[in-house]
Structures are given as C-alpha cells and as structure tokens.
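We give its fold:
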Amino acid sequence: MSNPETKAPAATETALHRVKELTAAVKELLRDAQGKGEFAQPARTIMKEAPATCSPSDTLRRAAEIFWNADCGLAPVVEEDGRLVGVLTDRDICMTAYFRELPISAIDVGSTMSKTLTTAKPDDTIETVLRLMAEKQRRRIPIVENERLVGITSLADIARHVKSLESASASRMLAHTLSAISEKRDDAAPVASQAAE
C-alpha cells in the first residue's frame, strides 16, 4: 500500500509544472494578441509613402485613370494642402455610375467618396493597423499625421511582412484579420456613396 504522504508532494509538483506550462501558453497568447512580437513595429515601416490620390473636384473618369495607372483599388481623397477628406474605391465608381445612370466624366469624386475615415498614425503599431482592419472591415488604411496623408498600408503590405517573418503566430493573426474583413456586414446597404473597403 502506498503512503499518501509521498503522493502529496508528487501531485503538488505535477500541478505546479502544469501551472507553469499554462502560464507560458497564456503569456504567448497575450504576446500574439497585443502585438508585442512580430507586429510591434510602427506602421511607417511597411506603409507605402506618397500613394496615388484624388482631389474632390476630380471626375470619376480621372479617378478611374488614377486607379488604372497606379494598379490600385482605393485612392485617398485629399485637398490641395494634403489634408485627407475621404476615400474612393473602384467599387464606388461602378456603383455610382450604375445608380446615377450618368457617364463617370459627369460625376465628381467629392459627391461619391466616403467621408467616414478609418486612419492610423505612422507610429501606430502594425498590430493596431491589423485590429482596425478587422474591426472596420477595411483592406487598406490611410496613414495620417496632423490630418495630412503621409502613406497607406494595405493587407497585402502586411501579408508580405508576415511572409518575411515565417512566423506561425503572425500568420494566424493575419488569417484572423482577413476572415474578419470578409464577414458580411450588417450595415451593408446598396448605396453608391458607401466605400466598400
């Protein structure tokens, strides 16, 4: 018959070992979730500087030309002083032309752009940008300093960053963000002025 007094220290040691393992796992999860590892760098390290932009007075035809030449699907809309006032997507152009039944050369960007802006600052972490993308369902986030556009960060920029890291936790976070962006929005409405992403 075994002695209960010898079992107690062994059970305590096993329990302590399991607590240490659990603590380590929780710390790793928190590090991943808070971006203290792979996504702690500032957004400026991966943002595209001087992105293609539109003016509110540009026509949608001019905006489409900008999209084609820059090979992009979203353009920040800025005033002459560089202040960000909206964003325009290629989808906005298509939906506006469809609903208004006008040629795109007769419609200005200012009447079509989304004025609801989701932006980040150059010193915000990449993790902060990822969280914004997931929460607001945006694939691209303009980077703004003192209300002026200084760059743009896309999900593709972050994907290239993740690929260079070869990190499983970073890949999981990127996949989670893409999944959140792709969820159907409850507030989706068939209006031409709503920015798609």
